Amino acid sequence: MKKRFLAIIAMMAATITISSCAASPATTTTGETSVMDTTVSGTTAPAGESTASAVEYIKITATEAKALMDEGNVIVLDVRSQEEYDDGHIAGAIRLAYGEFPDKLESVLPDKDAVILVYCRSGNRSKTASDLLIEAGYTNVMDFGGIIDWPFEVVRPD
């Protein structure tokens, strides 16, 4: 009986581990296949009380980000340094390096329900910044990676 119980526990643990480690493929709005990584924020509430809604990390393509920008009503957030921003940035982007988040986040981005499209140079900082935004309670955060993969117009110094 003890061996059977341990075998069932081992199978359950393996199933949970496999399902939580696998990234689920998703089809993007442009028909491309991408991998969606999920990060859940919120806490467990006592029985009878609701919990904070789960907010997922969303990775989109540059083409999807451009389409959202063209539709309007989005915030484009550049999380690179001032020097990187000055070398070239996406038109209309707000610059706030993710290292400045603790001091300036809520004053620069007061609407936690706004659609925020995040980018950096290569995609590493934008992922970290997106996670930080979600942890801070922002509900519509989308990461479109790095400007090095941005195939559209960039504002450059003269």
Task: Name a few traits of the molecule.
disordered N terminus, Oxidized Rhodanese, domain 1, five-stranded parallel sheet, alpha/beta, two-stranded antiparallel ribbon, 158 residues, globular
In angstroms, what is the radius of gyration? 19 Å
SS-based class: alpha/beta
Helix and strand element order:
HEEEHEHEHEHE
CATH class: Alpha Beta
CATH topology, anyone? Oxidized Rhodanese, domain 1
Q: Give the integer mean of the pLDDT values.
A: 77
Q: How much helical structure, as a percent, in the residues?
A: 25-40%
Number of DSSP helical runs: 5
Strand content is 15-25%
Strand order of the largest sheet: 3-7-6-4-5
What is the molecular shape?
globular
The termini sit apart by 77 Å
Q: Segments where pLDDT lies below 50 for 5+ residues? A: 1-51
At CATH level 2, the architecture is 3-Layer(aba) Sandwich
User: What summary fits the major beta sheet?
Assistant: 5 strands, parallel
Number of strands: 7
As for the number of domains, it is 1
